[in-house]
Amino acid sequence: MKQPKRYLITAALPYANGLKHIGHLAGAYLPADIYVRYLRAQKRDVVFVCGSDEHGTAIPIQATKEGTTAQAIIDKYHPIIAQNFNDLGISFDIYHRTSAPLHHETAREFFQTLNNKGDLITKESEQYYDEQAGSFLADRYIKGTCPNCSYPGAYGDQCENCGKSLSPDELINPVSTLSGNPPVKKITKHWYLPLDRHEAFLRKWILEEHAEDWRPTVVGQCKSWIDGGLLPRAVTRDLDWGVTLPDDVDGGKGKVLYVWFDAPIGYISATKQWALDNGKDWKPYWENKDTKLVHFIGKDNIVFHCIIFPVMLQLHGNILPENVPANEFMNLEGDKMSTSRNWKLEMEDYINDFVKPENGGSQMADVLRYYLTLIAPESKDSEFTWKGFQDANNSELVSIFGNFVNRALVLMHKLCKGKVPPLHTAAMNELDQEAIDNIKATKEKVEKLLEEYKFRDALFEVINLARIGNQYMQKKEPWIIAKTLDTNPEGQQLIDNCLHICLQLTANLAILINPFLPFTAGKICYLLKVVEKILDWENAGSMKLLSVGYTLRAPELLFRKIEDEEIARQVEKLKAAAIHKEPVAAPAAPVATPEAIAVKPEIVFDDFAKIDLKVGTIVAAEKVEKADKLLKLQVDLGFETRTIVSGIALHFKPEEIVGKQVTVVVNLAPRKMRGIESNGMILMAEDAAGKLHFIHPETAINNGSGVS
Ligand SMILES: [Zn+2]
Fold first, then answer.
1. CATH architecture for segment(s) 384-564
2. Which stretches of 195-309 are assigned E, i.e. beta strand?
3. How many angstroms does the Cα of residue 466 sit away from the middle of ligand 1?
4. How far is the CA of 150 from the centre of ligand 1 (A)?
5. What is the pLDDT confidence band of residue 595, given thresholds at 50, 70 and 90?
């Protein structure tokens, strides 16, 4: 394949609404950085752009949580996130932000171009509006009772208790979070990107042209989106935080671009800012076909980077991505990483505990980079464990890689007077040649794997070369030969050859490990007293990296051992910080003893079939006067609302059961209780402690649904 003239590498823009965890790092930023460092070492023309995503409702919501303004939130988190990336060696050429005026300008122009060309459509729809606040309400600004689990604090887009995706219309008793009043419906106009118009293009471009070179997980997800039917997607929304529409757009006042539309344009504005800062032209990077554009993202971003953004780019006249190597998710100690449950390891925490100079320094940034690449979720979800982290460090970085480099330097000082010994070709044997061949072969393998975005396999090959070095040294045993030099003076040539090869191999390791562990590569350069220019990729495979007779520094350990106590502390910290959400449903009931479970006499199916059971929702509940056990309920059964008297008043307060779905025996003969006619019976389960539980569908279903 023809080599691209220039590379534009992007990593997903993180939301500036809080600290980012190592799952984010492993998903997009680290693999992107490895690829970019490799391209830079190849002296290719490459720009690596990223920045904070500072729009969308996540920012004002975080502001409410922290009792401050949206602007204060982004000004707080943007610099911390940027610094965290820097401390872990993520080498962006620019880390921009979408609140920058240049971005607003760029995103507005993008919208304007598409709108003027007729590539957007407008639609009017009804949306919730807060009359007191004078504002339309984004889904997140509406709260109510979850129809699924009855949690009273569910948002208009999701219930955070049961996790169900919701629309505001599904909420029971919705209220605006701005004023606390029930919202009203009002007509609003919005712009949409009609994705349905572009199905043929997407099918051809992804499912035909990139079926082979993109990851199967990525192609698979795209296929199911396309097969599922593409719909017009709203580009604008009624919100006061984000990129406002151009002034001359009719009906655009008070609306902003939807964050999914403005955020990826952030890659373009970041490139513009980088070009301004460096006296370059940004246009070829986004417009010339000989540019290779690669988006590094996590799997939750696939639809945006493979379907929606490419449609936007194509309509706007930009180039399309060559590849979108999306990673799956990384779990942590047996559970999904989650910010809301605080089950996570933040970059900031790792840096404080390990990377600060007093705790290990930048070498420890490399240890994290090493382990995250080793377990990279390239084809399926993977799991970070502190034990795995410790093992990877102690048994690979310390015992294999660090050990080899250290032994080469120690022996060279001891057996070769501290100078790089010559290679005596006449005294070379098969083992020497094999070691040299392995260096060259490893370079080829690593290069091929990196070009294919197979970072964990590439890293394995580099570590394997250090393993080969150790085995070679072990077979040559220069320390044994040194003891026989009195009787066998030619032995010095064998020692020289061994250490000459081991030192050239060490210099090669620095080049090959550099994209993955840049701080370690720098440290090896320091020990070898060579400038970092040696790390140019073209030098890999060479056996002339160190001149004969050159003096080297005294050995220093590359990696330190990680002790059991350190990882025990981390596991403890993780568990102590985790938030265990109490389910709204009662905790599991004590197990009933066998004698408490009596089974009634057998019946035939026809007996059972006489009972008509249906699902209904309790829409009102009140106490029955002078009857402390009874509640009078109104139950919506879909076809009618019935009065049912139920003996559950000791177990439930009327206000806590409104909105709950229940199972009702609807063909039970009416019965008067305390003067009220009850038209049915609500099924209840009683646990061993005597507590009552409703029997209801797992997720909300239509009232009137039959139960059998
Ligand atoms: Zn819920």
1. Orthogonal Bundle (1.10)
2. 232-234, 236-238, 255-257, 291-296
3. 53
4. 6
5. very low
